[in-house]
Design a protein that fits this description.
Strand order of the largest sheet: 1-2-4-3-5-6-9-10
CATH class: Alpha Beta
Helix content: 25-40%
Strand content: 15-25%
Number of strands: 10
CATH topology: Rossmann fold
Number of helices: 10
Length: about 300
């Protein structure tokens, strides 16, 4: 049962016994559920407004599951930081879906969440009915990852929400001139948790070590084989116009390899676009509706 904020908390056990968390929006219906996977240090709160939109539409509401990976949000921290990797996290997502009785769904992945979708395509492709990749693709630009490294190493430690808002604006404002004060406030709410010592980033501090150790002097491995395996699945790629992580050239290559790919470039935003802003909730909902309608038509055609 959803509470006054529009969601309920769901706790489940990972394959290795760790206690993990997800938010559940809406009720199970006839349409595909939607699984939301956040970025590296982010959590289920990033998808709150989008999840409310998808689960609360008068026509075609969907059940939405937004995951906290291990070490983020309300999920338990892992004593072994080597488990903070996309393979383990993909297994955790599959365990959560199994606990919920979900065999197939549409997936929305921001940044690391999109990488996890690539892994899911290799582990269990049948679970993926439609995909939204938010500012992520098979090629990660080293300059963009270097910026993430630098930000995490120097992440602000504000004492108040006001300080946090100004700190985030100072760091990211150049890439996100389109954001309003309300957008920045939601960002702060999603990133930080309140403690007796002020606001702290809502993730295991040891997670930073998994990124700090990357050698960016060497080219990062591309995921084109994994991406090519997704070619039969409806795909929407969202890119921030100012993104340093996903290049326009990579998006062009993605469209060439995956016929029918839909793309949206979000002006005034960088890595990664806020999915609740502008017309994005409506466009995402429309993409999911069209993908499901096409799937149903194909099933009816094959049954004749």
């Amino acid at each position: 049962m959803a509470d006054s904020e529009g969601f309920s908390d769901f706790f489940y056990t990972a394959p290795d016994g760790l206690k993990l968390h997800a938010r559940i929006y809406g009720e199970a219906g006839t349409g595909w559920p939607v699984v939301c996977l956040p970025g590296l240090t982010r959590n289920a709160r990033d998808f709150h407004e989008l999840a409310l939109h998808l689960s609360g539409r008068a026509k075609g509401p969907r059940r939405v599951i937004a995951f906290d990976y291990r070490g983020r949000g309300q999920s338990a921290y892992d004593a072994d930081i080597s488990h903070y990797n996309v393979g383990v996290e993909a297994g955790d997502v599959l365990a959560g879906l199994a606990a919920l009785g979900i065999d197939e769904a549409a997936f929305i992945g921001t940044s690391r969440g999109g990488l996890i979708i690539h892994v899911l395509g290799a582990l269990r492709p049948a679970v993926l009915k439609a995909i939204v990749l938010n500012d992520i693709g098979p090629v990660i630009e080293p300059a963009g990852l270097a910026l993430i490294q630098s930000y995490l190493e120097r992440m602000p430690k504000p004492k108040s929400p006001g300080e946090a808002l100004e700190a985030q604006r100072n760091v990211h404002g150049q890439d996100f001139p389109a954001l309003t004060d309300g957008d920045w406030e939601r960002m702060v709410h999603a990133i930080y948790r309140k403690t007796d010592d002020g606001l702290l980033p809502d993730f295991d501090p040891k997670l930073v070590d998994t990124v700090a150790g990357l050698d960016l002097s060497q080219p990062l491995p591309a995921l084109w084989p994994q991406f090519d395996a997704l070619a039969a699945i409806p795909l929407l790629v969202i890119r921030g116009a100012n993104s340093p992580l996903l290049s326009a050239e990579t998006v062009t290559e993605m469209r060439g390899r995956h016929p029918g790919t839909k793309t949206i470039t979000v002006s005034g935003q960088g890595h990664a676009p806020f999915l609740e802003t502008g017309n994005l909730p409506t466009e995402i909902a429309l993409f999911l509706d069209q993908a499901e309608s096409q799937d149903q038509a194909e099933l009816q055609g094959s049954a004749r």
